[in-house]
Amino acid sequence: MKSQVITSIIFIVIGLILLIGYPITLMYSIPLILIGIALYLFRGREAILEHPDEELGLKERR
Q1: pLDDT tens digits, residue range 23-49?
Q2: Cα(37)–Cα(30) distance, rounded to whole angstroms?
């Protein structure tokens, strides 16, 4: 598993535990859950942003 997936699962689980176990921490658990969902949804974006030249076939010639 990629580190983004593991981190997103950890954020979601911690947010759910806080939400279920301690409902008074609602303002802390909702952002954790949202950050975890965002990390999971955008997990492959860094490969697209870091290596556009390789996908286009524009490698350096030495």
Answers
A1: 888 898 999 999 999 988 888 766 555
A2: 11
Does any domain span residue 57? no
Identify which of 43, 37, 38 has the alpha carbon closest to the alpha carbon of residue 16: 37
CA distances from 36 to 4, 6, 39, 44, 53 (A): 9, 9, 5, 14, 30
Domain that holds residue 27: 3-43
Q: How many structural domains are present in the chain?
A: 1
Residue 24 lies in a domain: yes
* Rounded Cα gap, residues 56 and 11, in angstroms: 35
Residue 48 token pair: 């697209």
Q: The pTM is what?
A: 0.66
pLDDT of residue 33: 92
